[in-house]
Amino acid sequence: MAEICLSTKTWRSGAAWFNQQLVASLAEAGASVAYIAPLALPEDREPNHPNVERHIVPRELTDGPKLRRRIASLRRITTGLYLTLMQRRSTRTFIFSIPEPLLFTLPLLIFLRLSGARILLVVHDAKPHAWSLPSWLRSIEWLALWLLYRLATDLVCLTRATAEALTQHFSVRGQKLTIIPHGAFRLGPAAPLPGYGNLLAFGSIRRNKSIREVIEAVLKCRAAGRNLRLTIAGEVTDKAYWRECQSLVARRPEAFDLRLGFVPDEDVPNLLAKSDAVVLAYTDFASQSGVAVLAALAGLPVIATRSGGLDELFERGMAGETIACPIPDDIAAAFIRFYDRPIAEWSAHAKVAGVRIGSTLDWAAIAGQYLRLIRQPTVSAIPADA
C-alpha cells in the first residue's frame, strides 16, 4: 500500500526530470510511492527503487497527423485518470505536478477531496505561460485555476514569487502555501568555459523569455565590434512570435546557430559545454527556471533578469550578470559587462557557485520537506473558505 501517489502527464524535458527526481528522493527517504506517469525519456531517468510502485501511462505523440495525436492524448488522459482513481482504494495522499488539462483534472480532484484524500499540488506557474482560451473566454480559464487552487489541500510553490502571485491573483491564503525549492539537476563535473563568445538561449521558445530582444542585443553587440554568437535551442511554442525572431536572425545569420525542436537529453551536456553563459531574459515570470538550475550546477554562468526564481538563485550565489530590464539595450549591456571580465574568472566563480547551489538544493533535504508536510495532520473535508 503506497503512502503517496504522484500523478503527472510529463515524461521528457526538465519538468519530467523534476517529477522523476522527486519520486526517487521520496522513495529513498523511506516513503512508498505510487508513480503514475508515462515512461521516462530517456528511460534511465525512471525512478527505479523498491519503494516505487510504477503505473505507466501511454505517452502523447509529438509528431504525426492531428487526429492521431489527439487520440493518443485522450488515451493518456483517460488511462491516467483511471489509474489515479483506482489508487484511491489504498492511498490517501496525492501529489499532482503538471497534471492533465483542467477539464479532466477538476472533476478528479473534487472526487478525491470528497473521498477524504489529501491533495498536494506542486505549482510550477501560478498563471500559464500562454492561456489556452481566447481573451473573451479568459475569465472561464481563470475561474478554473481559482477552483484548482481551492480544491488542493496544500499548494507547494517552488519560489517565493509563485507564492506571492497566488496570493495576489487568486487570493490564496498564506497558511495553504508551502515553499519548497526546485531540486538540483546534475550533469557531471563543471568544465572550463570555452571563451569563444558563444551564448546559449535554451528551452522552449516563448514570448516571456524575450528571445526577440536577446537577438536584437546580439546584433547591437556585433555592430559595436563584439564578436558574439547566439545558439537558440528548443521547441517553438508560438509560431507567430518565432517569425518575428526569424526576421531579425536573417539580418546576420552567421551570428546565430538555430537548433529548433526538442533537445534530447544526451545532447544537452555538449550544448552547455560549447557555451560561455546561458541567457534567460524572462519577463512576467514567477516560477523557477529549470534551465538556470541546470546551468548553475554545470558550472555555467547565467545572464538573466531577476524575475521569479532567478532572483532567489542569484541570492543563493549563482554566477552571472543580471539584466536590468529585458529590452535590447539592457541585455546588450549585460553581455558587454560579462565579457569585460576575464573568462577564467567566470569559470572559477561558476564552479564554486555550482557546488554551493547544489548543496542548498539537495534532493534528500527537499524530500524531507515534502514528507514533513505530508505527515502533518490536516482536515480531510473541503472547507467552505478553502
TrEMBL record:
InterPro entries: Glyco_trans_4-like_N (IPR028098). Residues 13-183 form the Glycosyltransferase subfamily 4-like N-terminal domain. Keywords: Membrane, Transmembrane, Transmembrane helix. The chain crosses the membrane at residues 102-123. It comes from the Bacteria. CDD domains: GT4_PimA-like. One of its GO terms (molecular function) is glycosyltransferase activity. This is Glycosyltransferase family 4 protein. It comes from Paradevosia shaoguanensis.
